[in-house]
Amino acid sequence: MGLMDRDYMHEKSRRQRPFSPPPERFKLGTLGMALVFVALLFFLYKAADWKLNQRPAPQPVAESMPQPARHPIPAPTSALPTQPAYPNSSNAAAGISQVTKCVVNGRTSYGDAACPQGSVSSQVTTRANHNLMAAVRPTAAGPAEATATAQHIVEVQASSISDAAAKKTECEWLDSQIKHGDSMARQPQGAQTQDWIREQRKQARDRQFRLRCR
């Protein structure tokens, strides 16, 4: 009697709850909802973090470095060597040349360079076409004396001197010019000065050859 009553009660309780889900299914549904909620929170966190990282990073401010002061380059103070004075092209075309006469301790020398200090200098003008020579006093003494001296030019006319005497005078002058150039070449000179001395010596030799100097 008791066993039949218990079976009846169990059967009755099952008929009263026909739609109740099994306990295992209810637990699985609750766990799935929790997982979905956690996944949603993780997705929201990642989205917020990504949005914050999209902000542009501040650009570093470049520090202005002081520029070094530029100092002007000083110009070279050493002067170039003085070039030898060459005859003017117009004078050369007319056959006129000038040489410097230097008198030092009674010795006379001729050349195109300036005379040494303490010597007496004068300018000698030669004219090959008329065989004339004019002695011109130097103009370095003073303005008044230089003007008066420059105006005093002594010219020897060709009619008063024979051709032989004029030829001899010029040949002697050319010979002294060559000797003076040789003495200058034996002294320590720069390469440019040595070239100029050789050129002057060659011109004097050519002139001697044309005059047939002995």
Characterization of this structure:
This protein has helices at residues 2-16, 23-53, 89-93, 143-151, 163-185, 191-211, and strands at 96-104, 107-111, 120-127, 132-136, 154-155. The protein has a domain at 89-211. It has a five-stranded antiparallel beta sheet. Helix 5 packs antiparallel against helix 6. It contains six helices and five strands; from the N terminus they run H-H-H-E-E-E-E-H-E-H-H. By secondary structure, the protein is an alpha+beta fold.
- The count of DSSP E runs of length 2 or more, i.e. the number of strands, is 5
Work out the helix count: 6
Head-to-tail CA distance between termini = 181 Å
**Strands of the largest sheet, in order across it?**
2-1-3-4-5
Secondary structural class: alpha+beta
Please provide the ordered H/E string of secondary-structure elements: HHHEEEEHEHH
- The percent range for strand residues is 5-15%
Mean pLDDT: 68
| Structural Rg | 60 Å
Largest beta-sheet details: 5 strands, antiparallel
Helix content: 40-55%
Oligomer: single chain
The shape is rod-shaped
Query: Which ranges are low-confidence, i.e. pLDDT below 50, for 5 or more consecutive residues?
Result: 75-87, 130-142, 146-160
